[in-house]
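Design request, tokens follow.
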């Protein structure tokens, strides 16, 4: 086994090994992986979502006449206010990138090994909806050579990201970009130039009717054989159950108190979205995580969906 195989084995061993076998031990850890939901729990979630989406704002009102239109049409302003308020203190660094998406580091290792002494080739990664860099910086430090393009439509997020001491133009290019803008001339990326696109909790912030065009744009940037690595909220996630009925703007679509949007996906929807744009599904998994607040004796059932799609 060479060094690169050994390091990927280590990464895989770290993935999801906290199994809750004895429910009486639930408060012994901060988190449990791949928790099974029983019928009652599923039923309760269904009832809760039926209640909070019983009367979504009608489309004509929510999108055009009513106050909520401003949230849907000016989403960038609400995210900008979010970053003005929270600065870089809200999201945590995505430390699980290496274990959940080992292919990025592995490809970087392969390219770096090939090129010793020669003109260096680089892996090109594009992170979409990068916020203040909680993925970009872990990615830069876990790869030797990868060059990371990253965009967010909040100018404040990009300003904060660029002001962090780790920001280096040798490894990264951060820019303001709206993923719903499908004019290729507005993007600093060439057609078919990117090896990996990373999209974490970003598609859920985009209006559902815009999603197909966003995926189409991203696919156009990918090299044949390139990947979209995706993680986002799944249907019946705790965040969805907590919304009030006044916040529902459509099926599985909600407006948070701060005006930002949150959509909750099913596996099938994601499959259909990406396959319709010519991608091949390599992973589409629900991650049902039980988070435990041991101080306050609270259990939080999170539902995330993780997917990997390849461009043929
Ligand atoms: C929930 S945050 C996730 C941030 C980051 N990906 C992470 O996981 O830490 C969603 C991010 O997507 C960005 N975003 C939402 N819609 C966008 C769009 N149309 N174009 C670019 N960025 C967008 C927001 O500004 C925000 O930074």
């Amino acid at each position: 086994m060479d060094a690169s195989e050994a390091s990927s084995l280590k990464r895989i061993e770290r993935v999801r090994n906290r199994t809750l076998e004895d429910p009486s031990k639930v408060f012994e850890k901060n988190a449990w992986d791949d928790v099974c939901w029983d019928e009652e729990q599923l039923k309760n979630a269904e009832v809760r979502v039926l209640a909070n989406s019983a009367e979504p704002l009608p489309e004509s009102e929510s999108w055009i006449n009513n106050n909520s239109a401003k949230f849907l049409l000016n989403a960038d302003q609400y995210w900008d206010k979010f970053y003005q308020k929270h600065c870089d203190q809200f999201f945590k660094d995505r430390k699980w990138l290496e274990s959940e998406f080992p292919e990025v580091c592995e490809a970087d290792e392969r390219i770096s090994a090939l090129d010793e002494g020669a003109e260096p080739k680089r892996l090109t990664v594009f992170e979409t909806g990068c916020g203040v860099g909680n993925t970009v910086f872990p990615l830069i430090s876990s790869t030797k050579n990868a060059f990371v393009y990253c965009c967010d439509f909040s100018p404040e997020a990009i300003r904060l990201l660029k002001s962090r001491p780790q920001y280096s133009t040798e490894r990264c290019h951060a820019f303001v970009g709206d993923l719903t803008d499908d004019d290729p001339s507005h993007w600093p990326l060439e057609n078919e130039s990117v090896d990996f696109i990373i999209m974490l909790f970003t598609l859920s912030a985009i209006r559902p009717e815009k999603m197909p065009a966003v995926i189409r744009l991203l696919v156009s940037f990918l090299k044949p054989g390139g990947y979209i690595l995706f993680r986002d909220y799944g249907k019946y996630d705790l965040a969805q159950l907590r919304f009030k009925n006044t916040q529902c703007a459509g099926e599985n679509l909600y407006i948070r108190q701060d005006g930002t949007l949150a959509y909750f996906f099913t596996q099938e929807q994601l499959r259909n979205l990406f396959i319709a744009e010519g991608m091949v599904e390599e992973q589409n998994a629900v991650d049902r995580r039980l988070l435990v607040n041991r101080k306050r004796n609270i259990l939080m059932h999170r539902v995330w969906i993780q997917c990997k799609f390849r461009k043929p």
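Comment from the thread starter after seeing the answer: thanks! The chain has one domain: 31-310.
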